[in-house]
UniProtKB/TrEMBL annotation:
Listed name of the protein: Nuclear transport factor 2 family protein
Top-level taxon: Bacteria
Entries under InterPro entries matching the protein: DUF1348 (IPR009783), NTF2-like_dom_sf (IPR032710)
Pfam families: DUF1348
Amino acid sequence: MEVKKPLPPFTHETAMQKVQMAEDAWNSRNPEKVSLAYSVDTEWRNRDKFIKGREGVVQFLSDKWNKELDYKLKKELWAFTDNKIAVRFEYEYHDTNGQWYRAYGNENWEFDEYGFMKKRYASINDLPIDEKDRRMK
């Protein structure tokens, strides 16, 4: 069986590693690469969308990054337990009209015994910003 280290149960150090790995993967804006961190049968809630499976993740992220241009993300470990991690995040992007946004949110993650994320629940709010107010460049 394939594994995605670090494995649960998490320590502060391994939880921080998982968060950094997720940030790096999402900033690649490569849906196929990102999907490999999730279990084959992963379940997501992202805002008002419900996504199932890696194929659903690839489709969702492809659509997302076709609309959210020049996407840049920063994640921060908020809390962790044996196989769960909570993060706070923000990211910036612009739409096809050039309007910049900063999105703020929280995610709750649950991992299987092989280190793959089997559940991801995200609550996100977008704030329009001026390009001069960007923090992530």
